[in-house]
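agent: user wants the structure for FAD-dependent oxidoreductase 2 FAD-binding domain-containing protein from Streptomyces haneummycinicus. delegating to structure tool.
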Amino acid sequence: MGGGEKRSWLDGHGITFLPTVGWAERGDLRADGHGNTVPRFHIAWGTGTGVVALFARYAREASRDGLLTFHHRHRVDELVVEDGTARGCAAPSSRRTTPRAGSRPAGTRSARSNSPPRP
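agent: tool returned. relaying tokens verbatim.
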């Protein structure tokens, strides 16, 4: 239901989609056959970077205008939402974490490791 509203918002901000005729869950390709009758996914031109660029631009503008502050190397646990609008975020600690070069951030583990996270 919200697809039209979201699609027009994205189009209005310059994000367009590949005109995909075939799609991954296409069934047997017959009109009366099994499978989906409409695509279940959409691919944006520029894929990840093309989509992120729009939101990164808004974030940089908000930072320039004093509406957004970046705190690099901080973990965010939740968004603070008031009246349906994100107003901030909550983090477990306000201290900056600067790991040594080549080390993993505290509380994380390597995908190859079975050891528990470091305290």
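agent: one observation worth passing along. The helical segments are 3-12, 47-64.
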